[in-house]
Amino acid sequence: MFHYENGLMLTRPRLAIDIPRRQPRAFVSHAHADHIARHELALCTPDTAALYRHRLGAGRRVIEMPYGRPVDYAGARLTALPAGHCLGSAMLLVEFEGRRLLYTGDFKLGESLTAERADPPRADMLVMETTFGHPSRRMPPRAEVIAELIGLVHRILADGKTPVVHAYQLGKSQEVTAILTSHGLPVLQHPSIYEVTRVYQRRGVELDNDDAGVGAYQGAPLAGHVVVTLPRSMKAYRLANLGAVESIALTGWAVDDGARFRLGVDHALPLSDHADFDELVELARIVQPERIATTHGPPGFDEHLRALGFDAQPLAPDAQRRLFE
Ligand SMILES: [Zn+2]
């Protein structure tokens, strides 16, 4: 049995998964704020452990689970597998009494420069996030979005202005930085973003190269540099002395009409670290589960899965469902 409390609680074997409230023992799929808490003991990948400790304190107790190496836990076998969402992000495969449950956490299929690519296994039961579980949430090909971003940045620089990219502190900021520097465009990051970038670099993720580096914004823009800062929804996004700018939000929500107005930016481009609608369906086809529970998404995605022949239900906050039977 399991139930949902903003994360997942397995009752057999007893294990909290991604519950953002202190637990005796919890699997942490990745280090985004809505998935972590000061647990007595956290199970997570080594990269997530580094980011988790960066965010919540160096003394946090962790059992590290490198990708693909099963850990015995209360009679179950637990295996962390790449989720493609941000550095260290993991799906969790639980094997218990001959049955396999796959919990996706936040995930993305396809390429990333800063996260290990997801390669989901087959399982009997699938619990999946469905953030973009509406047919309107289909992302254009990544290469097209990157080409548009690079062209836009060059045009803004040529106009004598500073391109300012708004992106989440952990994951998206590092991904866009790697994209920009790999195109020869040096980056200055909001200091709080740069702290996370230092963790990525210590974990061996290359975010710069000989042609274009990354550093912290030091109170003034530099010629030819792109500035990466926090989303405008976060008060701390402002940086002093930027002068003339054009702002670009990078988010999957940019596929929605009028996104740039709602986000308060000049441009919005749909680069996402979540699976889009088609990737969500693709995941179900790869995993081929007997049953699917959907979380973290709009109503109706489970209906879409049922129309495709899957036995799918939303995992409501108070839902209790038979799992290993
Ligand atoms: Zn996340």
Automatic annotation (TrEMBL):
Annotated EC: 3.1.-.-
Every Metallo-beta-lactamase domain range: 27-139
InterPro entries in the cross-refs: Metallo-B-lactamas (IPR001279), RibonucZ/Hydroxyglut_hydro (IPR036866), RMMBL (IPR011108)
GO MF annotation terms: 5'-3' DNA exonuclease activity; damaged DNA binding
GO biological process, one term: double-strand break repair via nonhomologous end joining
Keyword Hydrolase among record annotations: yes
Enzyme class: hydrolase
Residues of the Zn-dependent metallo-hydrolase RNA specificity domain: 267-308
Superkingdom as given in the UniProt entry: Bacteria
Gene3D superfamilies assigned to the protein according to its UniProt record, in alphabetical order: Ribonuclease Z/Hydroxyacylglutathione hydrolase-like
Keywords, comma-separated and alphabetical: Hydrolase
Transmembrane parts of this sequence: none
PANTHER family noted in UniProt: DNA CROSS-LINK REPAIR 1A PROTEIN, DNA CROSS-LINK REPAIR PROTEIN PSO2/SNM1-RELATED
Protein's name according to its UniProt entry: Ribonuclease
UniProt lineage: Bacteria, Pseudomonadati, Planctomycetota, Planctomycetia, Pirellulales
